[in-house]
Amino acid sequence: GAVVSQHPSWVICKSGTSVKIECRSLDFQATTMFWYRQFPKQSLMLMATSNEGSKATYEQGVEKDKFLINHASLTLSTLTVTSAHPEDSSFYICSARDLLSLKTSTDTQYFGPGTRLTVL
Amino acid sequence: GIQVEQSPPDLILQEGANSTLRCNFSDSVNNLQWFHQNPWGQLINLFYIPSGTKQNGRLSATTVATERYSLLYISSSQTTDSGVYFCAVKTSYDKVIFGPGTSLSVIP
């Protein structure tokens, strides 16, 4: 149980194009999903918190108009990198909080396998 | 904001050796998790441990919340243990902050 998928697993695109990454919780409902970015040999940095049915909350320094987040259902959040540039190349990871775990003491986040974006 | 530190940053072990990884955090936290990131980038949840001690096979973890640190013990290390180990803390603002990680290489 508690599986999170991401699609695509990797993508290569030209500079100036937009790329959409999907994050799905496969066997649980998630009112909250998180998007992280990880540059090579660095830690995960939280970009934004995605709440189902409401606007995402972005971390300081993250451009909300460049990284569009939509959380339309309890099992799907999408991140769209608009007008991507080479400096946006990174490993993007989502996580989902199990709604059921909020009612227990665990409140665990489950992470997707990540999407590697390369912008040429 | 809360600061999370991990030590050592890099560690090389001979297969079969034991090791201890440390995570320090600067403020009280609501929970703490240890993750292993494999060479393909997948994060694997090892422990959810806001306090106390847990064990799972060759791995165990201890969090002393009052002193703001957590330890991850790896015993009888194997080459498959290689990768990066992260601790991540959840703050009162409901955010999860990752530490910088410990890169572990286990050599045969």
How would you describe what is shown here?
The complex is a heterodimer of chains A (120) and B (108). Chain A is mainly beta and 120 residues long. Chain A is 0% helix and 51% strand. Chain A has no helices and 11 strands. In chain A, the strands form 2 sheets. In chain A, strands 2, 4, 5, 6, 9, 10 and 11 form a 7-stranded mixed beta sheet that branches. In chain A, a hairpin with a 2-residue loop joins strand 7 and strand 8. The mean pLDDT of chain A is 90. With 108 residues, chain B is mainly beta. In chain B, 0% of the residues lie in helices and 58% in strands. In chain B, the strands form 2 sheets. In chain B, strands 2, 4, 5, 9, 10 and 11 form a 6-stranded mixed beta sheet that branches. Chain B has a 5-stranded antiparallel beta sheet with strand order 1-3-8-7-6, with no helix packed on it. In chain B, strand 7 and strand 8 form a beta hairpin. The radius of gyration of chain B is 13 Å and the shape is globular. Chains A and B meet through strand 4, strand 5, strand 9 and strand 10 of A and strand 4, strand 5, strand 9 and strand 10 of B.
Order of helices and strands of chain A: EEEEEEEEEEE
Strand and helix order of chain B: EEEEEEEEEEE
Structural class of chain A comes to mainly beta
Radius of gyration of chain B: 13 Å
Structural class of chain B: mainly beta
In this structure, how is the largest beta sheet of chain A organized? Answer: 7 strands, mixed
* Rounded Rg of chain A: 14 Å
